[in-house]
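To the team - zinc ion complex, inputs and output below.
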Amino acid sequence: MKLTADYHTHTIFSHGTGSVDDNVRAALDAGLFAVGIADHSIAHMAYGVKKRKVGSYLTSIEEAKRRYDGRIEVKAGIELNLIGLDGSVDIPDGRFDTLILGYHKTAMCRDLKTLYAFVRGSRHVDAVTQAYMRAIQRYRIAIVAHPGYGVPVDFRRLAQACADYGTLFEINNKHEELKIEDLRLAAQTDVRFVLSSDAHSPKAVGRVPNAVKIAEKAGIALSRIVNVSEE
Ligand SMILES: [Zn+2]
Ligand SMILES: [Zn+2]
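Output:
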């Protein structure tokens, strides 16, 4: 299978090593028709895009859209943090094309109850799964990033919510925690999947060998993965 788009890549605005332009050029070299810039959002304490830099982040992406118009589609994405059991996320601005939702231990939670549930995740799988589901219901989440990374979830219920709201279930190349059996549980629903590099350097853009391997092992049909072609 051949990757056609990579919607989840990082730049120097969070903790990637390349610029927006570097990632777009790498995506062109990889033969993709679309690339998403999706840096960590503002609640990520270590690497989030600084609040005062959200404007220049979006401007850089807008410039790349114009510069590469007709050659590759560039998406203004952001990797939001799940920060509340009520489904709160840290959207800094309404101007994004692609909202990606992830859980990261290093994001500032809204309240202590949420922090407690996330830290003791294995005892709070229901509450955590519901937090994801509420976020999907409240916002137009395009992709749930690396499900199960950092905190356990009920894969089947999460995938069902994704299917109901048209949210894509990510198979992440960088985080390999997703187990075959978890992916199979997700696949029991009619959710659709997306493969992402989660590249933190330009050379990793468009490269998803680990994600392909796990998708194949779990028996995911190509027709259910939105960003691959047969060749
Ligand atoms: Zn992430
Ligand atoms: Zn990421």
